Amino acid sequence: MTKQTGITLMEILVSLLVMSTLLSLSLPSLQRMVVSQRLAAAANDTLAVMLQARSSSLVRGDIVICIKNSDCDDAAPGPGLMAFHDRNKNLRHDSGEPIVAETGNTKQIQWQWKSFRGKPWFRYLATGRGYYQNGSFIVCLGNTGRRVVVNWVGRPRVERNVPPGICPASS
Q1: Which one-letter DSSP state was computed for residue 112?
Q2: Are 158 and 47 in contact, with CB atoms under 8 Å apart?
Q3: Cβ neighbours of residue 95 closer than 8 Å, sequence gap 6 or more
Q4: For the ranges 30-34, 67-71, 130-134, 136-140, which has the lowest average pLDDT?
């Protein structure tokens, strides 16, 4: 009599059951990690735009940062940020004014600007300082978000905490 080696059907089914249970338990935390990483990347992209705009203001003069597709007169959330050299100081992006930096367009991530003075834009003066205002660019993905806070001197920093209700869940 020869001894047979191999795996039985029952052993395969039990191992598949164990693997599927482990996968279903780890999937929610994996999704949270993906959202967190996408938000971190978008916040870092926003920080890079702010730093590029600040350094460009020392060379070119006034740099205005606002939400894309808003003409800098609307504080509604939008698909990204745009920093441009405002030659005529009208706080709007006109044709011929060079774009210094911008974030990438994304479908799910939204940017919004919350200012203590209620202006829908942030402006760097030729000295690299903010134009007498401070506030936050809020990066939202669903109902979670990150903030890029700009102090009155114009120095940006990233914060993880976003108050509840600032980022409404996408429909």
Answers
A1: E
A2: yes
A3: none
A4: 67-71
**Cα 52 to Cα 28, 46, 48, 64, 77, distances in angstroms:** 36, 10, 6, 12, 22
pLDDT band at 169 (very low <50, low <70, confident <90, very high): low
Contact 35, 142 (CB under 8 A): yes
**Cα Rg of the chain, angstroms:** 24
CA distances from 16 to 6, 24, 25, 29, 143 (A): 16, 12, 14, 21, 35
Alpha helical stretches, state H, the chain: 9-60
Least confident segment among 34-43, 65-74, 133-142, 156-165: 65-74
Q: Are residues 39 and 64 in contact, defined by beta-carbon separation less than 8 angstroms?
A: no
Q: How far lies 162's CA from each of 113, 145, 146, 166, in Å?
A: 13, 6, 6, 7
For residue 97, report the phi and psi dihedrals to the nearest 5 degrees: -90, 120
Tokens 């990150």: give the residue. Answer: 146
| Other beta carbons within 10 Å of 40 | 14
